[in-house]
Amino acid sequence: MYTRPHFAILPLHFLTLSIPKGTGWRQQACVIPRPIGWISTISPPQEGPESESTPSTSTTTRPASLLSPSTTTEPRRTANLAPFSQFNNLTFDPPMVMFSANQTPSNQHKDTVRNVEATGVFCWQLATWELREAVNVSAEQVPYGVDEFERAALEKVWSTVLKTPVPMVKASPVRFECEYHSTLRLPCNPPMGTVDIVIGKVVGIHIDDRVLTADGKIDVAKTQPIARCGYYDYAVIRDTFEMIIPGDIEAIRHGMEGSVSKHRAAREAASKMGVSESGPP
Known about the structure:
It is built from seven helices and 14 strands. It is of the alpha+beta class. A hairpin with a 5-residue loop joins strand 13 (226-228) and strand 14. The relative contact order is 0.15.
């Protein structure tokens, strides 16, 4: 049973709480909304009598828009798909992302983490309003080796940049191909084990032309991404508004835009002029 600790009423009527063990649900309900993305992986080769066809790519660099991976037969690999709301962008030059995963109830690393660390690759896909039911189906805890794509009736499309091809959700309008960088393991309160924070470098991005504006920006009204709130609640994002940080430091503005070339040029120019900067890197 949860017992509320001593609190004080502040002028703005905030409730001040200590954090007893087992009440993390309240903290999660405050840090919202958290964007939901599918992390798809492929298991390392499993030797055995069964085999399935999986794409393998040549070492030759090929335009993704022109060539698809060839198909060969190799030891059996299993596709894995799981939604994560503990996901976020870390930086954009180079583009780095992260997701975190608690261990299973039996204190085992989740299939996603096991596959990423074994193969060195994974993909991220935007979860949208239209795909919400499939997101929920793929969130169920199932035995290792079960193909969540099939369970959720999702068609696969294969990555084209990664050294080991990974299946992706074809219906998702935005998909990242990522190379594994590292894992940070944080200790949890018993019996939780650890939380695994996985970091990856984005090496390929796929965006459906249908969700772009005339000037090439992603239109949130068209993608309608879903996000995790607290408890069993979710949100769908359809509206946005624009605010530009005041000041004349170009590097900050370009950093907010995510423009790599403009941001780099502005920082180099500021460095030569000895301009002091503050704000987003």
